[in-house]
Automatic annotation (TrEMBL):
GO terms for molecular function: kinase activity. Keywords: Kinase, Transferase. This is HprK-related kinase B. Signal peptide: none annotated. SUPFAM superfamilies: PEP carboxykinase-like. The keyword Repeat does not apply. Transmembrane segments: none annotated. The lineage of its organism: Bacteria, Pseudomonadati, Pseudomonadota, Alphaproteobacteria, Hyphomicrobiales.
Length: 368
């Protein structure tokens, strides 16, 4: 543990200097409100547009995020690498545990964050990497709800009338493509693309999507006619000429502004969760796509696709930060998902089949 304290970093950055800044906005997600204060006006404007659908006029907030630009610290910080999840390679995060907080350094970009009980600060080349600031703001929402007993699922979700469908699967397994295909349904609303909070309740659990817009890959774009305008015709032709496996593994990402593509009032982050699909399908088979109801408590392989490690920013209710050798509690997920109909989707990858099944499900009567 470093002898550096949170106060040392606060003294170096002086967040009080932003107290009167006009570069600010407040967002509200569920019952949580966050003030976001920026040193840079263009970054503030960019993120104000991004979070536009959750901007609030609340006069008081539950917490504040301060975002600075480049800063020279008057002390040296010793970081250690944060171990990545199985299957992930390369250095991404490094941490330094302080006496009363944690610093997280993004190795690839140089953006640095302070996470503590009282301060949430970002500094470094923040304007060049707005998505990392967006993630930091959303992390505060995830942290809050997980500390009060919700579980964080690695899932997309779409709501329609009286039903909400969450979709999980292996990375690149098609959850975003499936969710966006179902957004073509009349009355469908976007809940989340990648992180869904679920809180136990009866008769159905509560669900809350974080305000992170779909960040989608080229394979999702070129297979959805509504999205093709996001890329040039030349780029689209190049992508369509690639082998499917190579296309779906590309590490390109694009932000999709839901209201601009699907129309206004098509986002509903807060809902009740009725159904869950776990995509366990394959491009290596010609077997028909199937939907089989499962007991998730008896399928740890499928549950592992739903569970998500809270990561280096998470501080538990007892004040102790999460470590990279801890394991997520499966029992908490099983309890939170009680009352949800969970189905395994197997066989071949067929987006028309999941669209047809999803349309039937989402338009079905409210569960009894």
């Amino acid at each position: 543990m470093s002898a550096i304290t949170v106060q040392d970093l606060v003294d170096a950055l002086n967040p009080a200097s932003l107290s009167e800044t006009p570069n600010r906005f407040t967002i509200r997600v569920g019952e949580l409100t966050l003030d976001c204060l920026f040193e840079n006006d263009s970054l503030c404007a960019e993120l104000r547009r991004y979070f536009g659908h959750v901007i609030s006029d609340c006069e008081s907030a539950d917490m504040t995020v301060h975002v600075f630009g480049e800063a020279v610290l008057p002390f040296h910080v010793d970081y250690k690498d944060w171990a990545r999840e199985p299957g992930k390679t390369g250095r991404k995060d490094a941490i330094a545990d302080l006496e009363d907080g944690r610093m997280v350094f993004k190795v690839r970009t140089g953006v640095t964050f302070l996470q503590s009980a009282t301060w949430r600060l970002a500094f470094g080349p923040t304007s060049a990497h707005p998505n990392q600031v967006i993630n930091f703001i959303n992390t505060q929402i995830l942290n809050h709800y997980q500390r009060v007993g919700w579980v964080g699922c690695h899932a997309a979700a779409v709501a329609c009338e009286t039903r909400t469908l969450a979709i999980a699967g292996l990375s690149g397994g098609g959850k975003s493509t499936t969710m966006l295909r179902l957004m073509d349904l009349d009355g469908a609303s976007y809940v989340t693309n990648d992180r869904l909070l679920v809180g136990a309740d009866a008769p159905l659990p509560k669900a809350l999507g974080i305000p992170k817009l779909p960040r989608i890959n080229p394979g999702t774009i070129v297979t959805n006619p509504r999205l093709k305008g996001m890329l040039s015709s030349e780029r689209t032709d190049t992508l369509l000429s690639m082998p499917q496996e190579e296309l779906w593994q590309l590490e390109e990402k694009y932000d999709l502004f839901v209201d601009e593509v699907y129309g206004p009032n098509r986002i509903a982050h807060q809902t009740a969760l009725t159904d869950f699909w776990v995509l366990n399908w394959s491009r290596e088979t010609d077997e028909p796509t199937q939907f089989i109801e499962v007991n998730i408590a008896e399928r740890p392989d499928l549950l592992s696709a739903i569970m998500k490690n809270p990561g280096p920013f998470y501080c538990k209710p007892d004040g102790i930060f999460w470590t990279d050798d801890e394991h997520v509690d499966a029992a908490g997920y099983i309890a939170a998902l009680k009352g949800v109909k969970i189905q395994e989707v197997s066989g071949k990858i067929d987006f028309e089949a999941v669209y047809a099944a999803g349309a039937r499900l989402l338009k079905a009567p409210e569960p009894v």
